Amino acid sequence: MALRIVFTMPVTKAMSQTLVRAMSSQAVASKNVGFIGLGNMGGHMASNLIKQGHKLHVFDISKQACDNLKAKGATVYDKTTDLAKNSDYVITMLPNNDIVWKAYNDMTADGVNKNTVFIDSSTIDPNLVRELQKFISEKGARFIDAPVSGGVPGAEQATLTFMVGGTKDEYNTVKPILEGMGKRITYCGSYGMGQAAKLCNNMMLAISMIGTSEAMNLAIRQGLDPNVFAEIINSSTGRCWSSELYNPVPGVTPTAPSNRDYAGGFSTDLITKDLGLAAGVATATNTPIPLGALSHQIYRTLKAHGLGNKDFSVVYEFMKNEANN
Amino acid sequence: MALRIVFTMPVTKAMSQTLVRAMSSQAVASKNVGFIGLGNMGGHMASNLIKQGHKLHVFDISKQACDNLKAKGATVYDKTTDLAKNSDYVITMLPNNDIVWKAYNDMTADGVNKNTVFIDSSTIDPNLVRELQKFISEKGARFIDAPVSGGVPGAEQATLTFMVGGTKDEYNTVKPILEGMGKRITYCGSYGMGQAAKLCNNMMLAISMIGTSEAMNLAIRQGLDPNVFAEIINSSTGRCWSSELYNPVPGVTPTAPSNRDYAGGFSTDLITKDLGLAAGVATATNTPIPLGALSHQIYRTLKAHGLGNKDFSVVYEFMKNEANN
Amino acid sequence: MALRIVFTMPVTKAMSQTLVRAMSSQAVASKNVGFIGLGNMGGHMASNLIKQGHKLHVFDISKQACDNLKAKGATVYDKTTDLAKNSDYVITMLPNNDIVWKAYNDMTADGVNKNTVFIDSSTIDPNLVRELQKFISEKGARFIDAPVSGGVPGAEQATLTFMVGGTKDEYNTVKPILEGMGKRITYCGSYGMGQAAKLCNNMMLAISMIGTSEAMNLAIRQGLDPNVFAEIINSSTGRCWSSELYNPVPGVTPTAPSNRDYAGGFSTDLITKDLGLAAGVATATNTPIPLGALSHQIYRTLKAHGLGNKDFSVVYEFMKNEANN
Amino acid sequence: MALRIVFTMPVTKAMSQTLVRAMSSQAVASKNVGFIGLGNMGGHMASNLIKQGHKLHVFDISKQACDNLKAKGATVYDKTTDLAKNSDYVITMLPNNDIVWKAYNDMTADGVNKNTVFIDSSTIDPNLVRELQKFISEKGARFIDAPVSGGVPGAEQATLTFMVGGTKDEYNTVKPILEGMGKRITYCGSYGMGQAAKLCNNMMLAISMIGTSEAMNLAIRQGLDPNVFAEIINSSTGRCWSSELYNPVPGVTPTAPSNRDYAGGFSTDLITKDLGLAAGVATATNTPIPLGALSHQIYRTLKAHGLGNKDFSVVYEFMKNEANN
């Protein structure tokens, strides 16, 4: 068996982790996994499932995306109805509410395989999750939400976090599959709670990134050295993930996008989308989110100024702009 | 000398620090230390200096506060001019800009002892620090800023963080004294940078506390369990000091004021004061602080609703209020 | 003809206006008008149409609301399909998106009378307007949006403003009918533009009401007399409808709800609903609305504090609260 | 006496006001008026006083500004002490708190003429007004605040609004002088109330300008014609001075700066300064001003983006920016 080679090769730590992970496919029985949506994230996720030994059944509107997976051994479909019927699990990784809704309608137009578990890893409205769950369960199959965090690098390295909403049984059922794509598989509660957790976390992330940008900028304009101030804040009560691991000021956290002109990372477009979904659920639940709502508008203003494709930490540069000082 | 033992014993770094602290009353030469402002914080700080073996010269408008220190061995003064002249170091710990300014004027009305180093540990405007530094240096003595974080418990247990602004030499001079009252003595840069660091940190703290409150509330209203969601956020990108160590939702962080009806801790009044100072320096430096400014207004609204004396995490309760849902 | 009596009776100005208005029914041919939704607003609107000489065909889930209209001469229906088929115009005046959508589905379940013009006067999402227009036009009839402003008094006195979205021809067709319920019938553009205009106007209204409250409060706390300051602002650049005609400070505008403990008027619940719809269209069009979004959150906080039923000018009282000053 | 003609001619009230103004140089006894600060506003104001027949005693740090006034008949001084002693009234029109404070110190360094009334028309902190009033009254003269609105055109055409803080007697004393420079002389209350009124009005102005920009932008992005929407809002509850007379969208109000690339008018720099003063008094009085504070930060962001010199209605262009849509 190929996997035995592992221990006879001089491997790096990273390689051995990948191999150890790969070996777990012995534990996980090979499954038929459908995958719809082979974009920046989905392509890597599907590839990782192949590495785990699963049989992949894939669909995407991009021929090239399909060809990439085909080259790795996946079966490509034109019709998602067939794809779904051949799958133990179907994972959807799509851009927005409308496309997700349409995908599930198309895929189940002539009924479902009652053994299929549908897993949506897109980021969508938690209410749509509950509608989809009802829709699929009425047809006789199961549906859960399992949105991710960790971005493209997490998808590539199979280190995503999955936030799962469903019954505990369903969680236990899908966990081994999701472990092929991520390192933390969190149980959040019933249907929609995965999305709810993701949206609330990302709202907090947006707030603390903008807050960090304001505090760093204010410190620097008063004459503090950015590294000295970052050290102070990170060992004090102002500390947050953004200040510690993803500092928006160039030169403070070497690996952060701020050091490469805010390229890559988590785009302003995506955080704005998530804040829009969070604002929607806040309206539906009458929850006051003053800082969340203002953060949403700030990111929307950045989009209006052409920064949608930049990493969301570019808000620091937008605010520090000193054209007139 | 006792200190030598430290290095001949097989001690861990942590142990050696403890020993240094324990023995430091012998290590640090006893000094004459003036202390003005013996309130909730200052009283404990002055007591800790006595424990370190220093001779304390104290002043406060409250007779009782003076009596407390007298009982511990301090000399009480009616006139701060005499106090200052008898002191190697004078530490001021006072409520606001105006009182600090008046204290320094009174204290130096008939000149200074040129060997005295004045240390202001109050929280004041960084610009006032620079005015005071100029004022004192023109009289021939030295002045630095060293505001603190850590609150009343930190003052009591001598675990405060001091953020020092001055020359590096001045920092080295005052460090042994400050170590008698705190565990982290951070060098922030020139005059005023201690205050600047403190204000920026506390602005970030206010933003992340309100953000945490919004995110927790939104998660809970959607049906997430607060402990589950806190665990998710704390192992993800939304993590911050407030979510991890001081969660505003009762039952999540056992030691947090949220579990005792928001009593004690860091009051809404104090964070509002700090946000006011931060807003002032932001205006002076033309720095946009949208979330900082909104947080300031939110805390001001809490004060208007009678919550000024509560811990600042009470913002969660203020926003979750469900009278009408 | 009864109307001639008008000029032989000693009439007040208000009476004569009503009679003049009533006389215009000679110009407007009597029509069969369906009315669905006989609530606080709809009941008065339907009554006014009866006064104009139209034949009313009505439906509401409240038996009492139906009975009231029956007593005035309306025909009451259990099934809206029949109501719609018997009507030249159908007016819907319902609480929210979902109820409107369901009403149109029910009403047209077995087809439409192709001569009927459907007029929705509810406040809903402009996108739903466009869906409904498509839905109805595919069935062969016409649909326009015509939301109102003016509140319950405007509905009662037939002084509403209607903001109409549709073709210019459709506008001209419905104008005579709407004139029986309002005094300004504004053409806003194509389908959905009536709703768009209403939502943008009401967002501006919310912002200026909160702004007026802040400015009045800040003026008063500095020692200005509220009437003196209102006079200054109203003859200067800070002037707005809220400061002039609906001042949130008791004693300034005698007719405003602020003088009767913020009872009646335009409720916090309703403006919050409109701000939620405005926030939705802002998200859909990527439009930054920082003050609009913050106003939404402020009103949501008022709801959370039990003020949902109060007039929206109660935001002044909420912010002036001086419990802790 | 010429003035009598006014009342014997069949004139309208407006005509008689014009005549009174035209002839007032004869009606108001000629006074010695000191004027310090001959900038964009002050230069015109001083010129208008000369036209009224007053003897002007002027000072400015710019030689050219002084020469301009000299050419019109003013006496130029190098020392403000002499200027003040020769004046019945001294008007100061200076850029900020610090310069005003220094000007009054310099001017009164060797005492005051006890008959002089000092009038500060600068925009400064109301607390500084009270300090100056105390300072001048202790020296034996009188001091009042009389800030203006109306901008450079108002200064040029003598149509400014003056907001006066002082005793009613002082108001009556200075009114005839101020009428030579403005058309509305408003009594606001005691010392500082003129400034308080101005700051609160301008905060409201900033809020409603940003609100108008948001509402117009949101309407336009949904497809409404800007002129149609402006007409709707201006005859409805969203109406404000900014929407009616100074619309930020080009093409709506022909005379507004939006039609000339936001040149001239009331600069972003100046409204930001006024919002900074308003924020300061709000902090001092514990007044929540969420929309005012956010407006301040938005204008500060515009400054950071190089728009400080543009008219403050440029906020519309800043927010509508569609680089990324």
Automatic annotation (TrEMBL), chains A, B, C, D:
Q: Indicate the principal place this protein occupies in or around the cell.
A: mitochondrion
Spell out the molecular function terms from Gene Ontology.
3-hydroxyisobutyrate dehydrogenase activity; NAD binding; NADP binding
EC number(s)? 1.1.1.31
- Respond yes or no to whether keyword NAD is given for this record: yes
| Active-site residues per Swiss-Prot or TrEMBL entry | 198
Database matches in NCBIfam families: HIBADH
This protein is called: 3-hydroxyisobutyrate dehydrogenase
> Which organism is the protein's source?
Bactrocera dorsalis (Oriental fruit fly)
